[in-house]
Amino acid sequence: MRKYIIVGASVVLAVVLAVVLYLLMSSKAALVTEIPEVFRGQSILYITNQGRTFIESQNGGSIYPIIHDTKALYVLSGTKDVIKHYHIDKENKELVIEQNTSQKIRDGSYFQLVTIPTEKYQPIVEDSKIKVRIKFKYLNNKAICLEYNLQNQTTRIIDTNLVGK
């Protein structure tokens, strides 16, 4: 009898650990070495300096390119800042991405890709728009808030508290 209790407890513990590991891994950005195919229609400029990749702002563009297709919403970032975590905030109806500074120096260009399946982001869509809040942990959670328009696939800054007023 005792043997069955130990086996049962081990199975429960393994399932709980698997779920926790899945949740932790599912909210991390994928590290990729080239701009993903879904962004190929956009002209994304970037530079790699001292082992970190920076996406450059362009006229009418964002340093966080966003795009969607029938499968998912995609947010691209360089590796200057590391995406530590992201989640859907249903209460505030926004995608929240938390970043911290990166001390890691890499050979070549690397990018981070956040991929949110369509069924996950649908609850935060308002008027065919999605709010994306980028929080900078190293700046006491100061943030920049972007608005992505699903209809015309444009991104604009709607709020920032990065600079003092």
What this model shows, in words?
Helix content is 18%, strand content 41%. By secondary structure, it is an alpha+beta fold. It has one domain. Strands 6-7-9-10-11 form a five-stranded mixed beta sheet, with no helix packed on it. A four-stranded antiparallel beta sheet has the order 1-8-5-4. The longest helix is centred in the N-terminal third of the chain and has 25 residues, at 2-26. The chain is globular, with a radius of gyration of 19 Å. Mean pLDDT is 83; it is low at 18-26.
| Secondary-structure content class | alpha+beta
Order of helices and strands: HEEEEEEEEHEEE
> Sheet bearing the most strands, described?
5 strands, mixed
Gyration radius (Cα, Å) is 19 Å
Name the shape in a single word: globular
Mean pLDDT rating: 83
Instruction: Tell me the β content.
Output: 35-45%
Range of helix content: 10-25%
Read across the widest sheet, the strand sequence of neighbours is 6-7-9-10-11
Brief account:
Helix content is 18%, strand content 41%.
Which terms summarize this structure?
11 strands, alpha+beta, 165 residues, 2 helices, 18% helix, single chain, 4-stranded antiparallel beta sheet
List the helices and strands and how they pair.
Elements: H1 2-26, E1 30-32, E2 46-49, E3 52-55, E4 66-68, E5 72-77, E6 81-89, E7 94-101, E8 111-117, H2 118-121, E9 129-136, E10 142-149, E11 154-160
Parallel strand pairs: 7-9
Antiparallel strand pairs: 1-8, 2-3, 4-5, 5-8, 6-7, 9-10, 10-11
